[in-house]
Amino acid sequence: MIGLTVSKYRILEEIGRGSMGIVFKAQDTFLGRLAAIKILAEKLVNDPEMLHRFEREGGAASALNHPNICTVFETGSWQGRPYLAMELLTGQSLDERLAAGPVPAGQLIDIAIGVTSALEAAHAIGVVHRDIKPANLYLTNSGRLKVLDFGLAKVRAPAPPLGDDAATVAMFATRKGTILGTLAYMSPEQACCEPLDGRADLYSLGVVLYELATGKLPLRHAENTAPLPAGLGPIVTKLMARDARNRYQTAREAREAFQHWKCAAAAKYGVG
To answer: Is 70's pLDDT higher than 50?
Structure first.
């Protein structure tokens, strides 16, 4: 594929490969800017569920314009295979960052604010990510957090505040009762295929932050008290409440709690 042109993007090198497809570094032949091109694996072009997921990722992400969400420039089809053209990021995913050990409080709070800001924007237009985990969170070399991969996103008409009876719209053509997401980070309601809303993403974020701070996942089927530094634990513990009614009810509430902590910690501990 090196040297070929997909739409207006000339492929320069392969930079990633996953279960759904291949990611290439490319250059926009009109604008000159670099981009990442994600192309569905050839073996999956006849798999309706994978096609839906790939198209869903492009549709959900392209509807969002936010500094903490990876920007999708263009979607299309090349030789019968769908592709996404996205901003090219340099840095590391949080699962790669985990290999270096626990994340210090100052960096952890910036990650939390970045993710909640992105989720606030997504939830406002009815998009629930459903797969918040370290591999889908990317820390750029400039220190900005980016949320990736909306391939499992659920879209519904936004109706704030989100209530317990918020409907799940057809699970995006997946089989009824199919669990979508990554089990270790799933909220209890998502793992049980129950109706869910944006609070499921907040639960997943709580698990991610717990893992980043401690280097290990919290125990499932238990109410975990997060052993995080300098008073940050109660915020993360609330995110991980098994009952969604006991969590922060919106991403905005969670973001404001983290920002308040950051201001207080900066004044008291010099953190942030």
So the answer is: yes
